[in-house]
Write a structure and sequence with these properties.
Layout: E1 12-16, E2 20-23, E3 28-34, H1 44-59, E4 65-75, H2 78-85, H3 94-108, E5 113-123, H4 134-158, E6 163-164, H5 167-178
Antiparallel strand pairs: 1-2, 2-3, 3-5, 3-6, 4-5
Length: 182
Amino acid sequence: MSKAQYADLYSWSHGYGENVLAHQDGACSIAIHWNGFDAEMLTEAERTTKWTELYTLIGLIGKEYCAEFHFWRESDASLADEYLAHNSKIIRGHTLAVAVREAMATHLEPYGMSNRVAIVLTRLPGTKGFAFGAKKQLVKQGEAAEELESIARTLAKKLPGGRVKNRDEYLLGIQQSYNGAG
C-alpha cells in the first residue's frame, strides 16, 4: 500500500457555473491568478506595506473561507520574443546589435522562466447549516458557490493583475500541481 498524499484528500465533485468547483463534502472552491508582488526593488517599509495590505485583504473574507497560496515557476520561451521586441529601440549599430540579440535570444530561449501566482479560495463546508436531503444540500452548496464567486471577483479586482480563472484553467493548475510539475 502506498503512502497517502495530500492530493489523495481532494474532494472535487462537479463544476458549478463557469468558474467554481463543488466538492463532495459541501465545500466549493475557485482560483484567482494574479501578478504577485515584485518586492525585490522595494524598501523594507514598502514591502511590509504590500504584505500587510494582502494580509488585511485576505482577513476580510471571513473564517468560513480558506485561502491557499500557490506558486509555479515554469519554462517560458516567449521571453525571447519579448527580448527581441526591443530591437526596434536600437539606435546605433542597429544591424550588428540586432544580429547579436537574435543569436542571444536563440541561445537563451530554452532557459526562459516565468512565475505564476494563484490563490485558491475555498468556501468551507457546513458553515450555512445542515440541510436534510440531497437536493437541499446541493441548493445550499450552490448558494455558497455564488457567494464564493462574488467574493473572489471582488478580491481579484484588488490584486495586481488579478482575475478569476475559469474552471478549465483551474483544473489545469490542479493537474500541474498534482503531477509535481509546478
